Amino acid sequence: MISSMTGYASHSADLGKAQLVIDLRSVNQRYLEISFRLPEELRTMEAAIREAIAARLVRGKVECRMTYSPLPEAYLDIGLNGSILESLSHWQKDVLARFPDAAPLSVSDILNWKGVLVFDERSDKDASALILAELEIALDDLSASRSREGGKLKNHILERLAGVEDCIAEARDALPGIMSAWQEKLTSRLKEALGDTANDRLSQELALFFQKSDVEEELSRLSSHVSEVRRTLDKGGAAGKRLDFLMQEMHREANTLGSKSVSLETTRISVALKVLIEQMREQVQNIE
Questions:
Q1: Tell me, what's the pLDDT at 65?
Q2: Dihedral angle at the C-alpha atoms of 232, 237, 243, 245, nearest 10 degrees?
């Protein structure tokens, strides 16, 4: 499937006696760029989280936010970290010995000291495995969001491709009449200017004119690019860069068609083609 680089997913889960909340956001970016907002408890997992995201996404600017909060029942099994309590007691004696007027630590100060309270949780290894498993669920949701958006982009591009094909068909239908009119006009002017001696010059001028104004090659290449865009969309996967290249090539052919134009009709068709191609190119910028 075709995926957009724009998507959002939010997932929460209770892991033992703590709640994990994961928010994933992604927007357009030329390459894959991952940023994090993690609590201190999960900082050591940043490399593993980055690896998990990179395994699922190819392009986009991705923001990963996580919160990891103890549930109310976790406070029923709180313990105290004896080693930190011993250290606090030792530090307090040293401080009071040097500064007798200093206020001693209160119970609140001690309990709010980082690391003093110990929650009865699973081992770090078990917790990491659970968190990464929940991250995969969030990534599934993000991928689904990006795929839904990608489906809309695909339909938008297919509608414009149909318009491009209509323009190509219109140009092919109009060209014989345009060329015939120009041949008659050129023949009439040369005969008026040169009289009976115009035949040789007429053949040369007509050959040069048809050579400069022949756009069949451009129309054929446009048709070929349209077919390739359809094939790429059907194939799916990380197709954004290839589609962007094809849009550039289609725009080049439309420009050449306009530069070779010999009538208002072909000029109008060239402008219509460029409008359609630019509309597709804007949407292609969103595709992974």
A1: 97
A2: -110
Q: What token pair was written down for 275? A: 């409008």
State the DSSP H helix or E strand holding residue 45, giving kind and residue range, or none if neither: none
Cβ contact 288:238 at 8 Å: yes
pLDDT at 244: 95
pLDDT reported for residue 31? 92
All structural domains of the chain? 7-72+124-146 (3.30.230), 79-117 (no CATH), 149-284 (1.20.140)
Tokens representing 30 are 């030329």
- How far apart, in whole angstroms, are the C-alpha atoms of residue 269 and residue 288? 31
Burial category of 45 from C-beta neighbours within 10 Å (exposed 0-12, middle 13-18, buried 19 and up)? buried
Task: Work out the angle between the directed axes of helices 216-235 and 240-259 (0-180°, nearest 10).
Answer: 160
Question: Of the given ranges (11-15, 47-51, 70-74, 145-149), which has the lowest mean pLDDT?
Answer: 70-74
Q: Is residue 139 within 8 Å of 56, Cβ to Cβ? A: yes
pLDDT over threshold 70, residue 200: no
User: Is 58's pLDDT higher than 70?
Assistant: yes
Which pTM value belongs to this model? Answer: 0.71
CB atoms within 10 A of CB 226: 18
